[in-house]
Amino acid sequence: ETTVTQSPASLSMAVGEKVSISCKTSTDIDDDMNWYQQKSGEAPKLLISEGNTLRPGVPSRFSSSGYGTDFVFTINNVLLGDEGIYYCQQSDNVPFTFGSGTKLEIK
Amino acid sequence: EVQLVESGGSLVQPGGSLKLSCVASGFTFSNYWMDWVRQTPGKSLEWIGEINTDGSKTNYAPSIKDRFTISRDNAKSTLYLQMSNVKSDDTAIYYCTRNDGSPFDYWGQGVMVTVSS
Asked: What is the set of domains in chain A, with CATH numbers?
């Protein structure tokens, strides 16, 4: 089973700042990493899928990079509406596994 | 518009059984693998399992294998999760998701399952 280690657990950022979230996997997963945003009381929403592919309708402020075992998710010019919890998830092998989440607070 | 609507969540006693349903609309249900993902209170997400397009193949997480069964009825565009011998650790919000080649591109609103005596 591939373990996904996500950091940091929480972030507090001001509007306009840059956010970076890291996920490291215990096995090589190529670029089979996905990123989700979950706002309070809602289901997760897929933002970026395998191959660092931005999903339709997702602002270009969101991006990701990485291959193998190290991955980074970035939000440029963070907005108040970006508050929520962000999760990474590997889709290289079953069982699919998620990171523990990063809670983003906007000051 | 893609919609996934779960139902069947409730309070169930340890050792009991429960069946969740997820009705899909807005896409050709029979063309997609479907998955269940759960979220325990205040904690992260856990993949439960998946089923292929015609229901002939399933994969499960080790934590629930042999207790949960995923099935589907393509004629009714409905996905199911049969839960048996439930434990307190199974208390969670259960989400039905569409599997777009492994990323979960659409999620239902979730249904709460509480295991308690």
From this structure: 4-106 (2.60.40.10)
Mean pLDDT of chain B: 96
Interface test with A, best of B2, B44, B95, B105 (most A CBs within 10 A): B44
Of B47, B60, B108, the CB nearest to A97: B47
Q: Which member of A94, A99, A101 has the closest CB to residue B59?
A: A94
Cβ contact, residue pair B44, A87, below 8 Å = yes
Interface membership of A101 toward B (CB under 8 Å): yes
* Percent of residues, chain A, with pLDDT higher than 70: 100
pLDDT tens digits, B21-77:
999 999 999 999 999 999 998 778 999 999 999 999 999 999 997 999 999 999 999
User: By the CB < 8 Å criterion, does A56 face chain B?
Assistant: no
Per the CB < 8 A criterion, the answer to whether B97 and B35 are in contact is yes
Using DSSP, state whether B30 is helix, strand or coil. Answer: helix
Q: Using alpha carbons, select from A44, A27, A94, A1 the residue that is nearest to residue B50.
A: A94
Answer whether A87 touches B (CB < 8 Å): yes
Mean pLDDT of chain A: 97
The stretches in chain A having pLDDT less than 50 are none
* Contact in structure between B113 and B10 (CB atoms under 8 Å): yes
Burial class (CB in 10 A: 0-12, 13-18, 19+), B37: buried
Give the residue among A1, A7, A3 at the shortest CA–CA distance from A103. A7
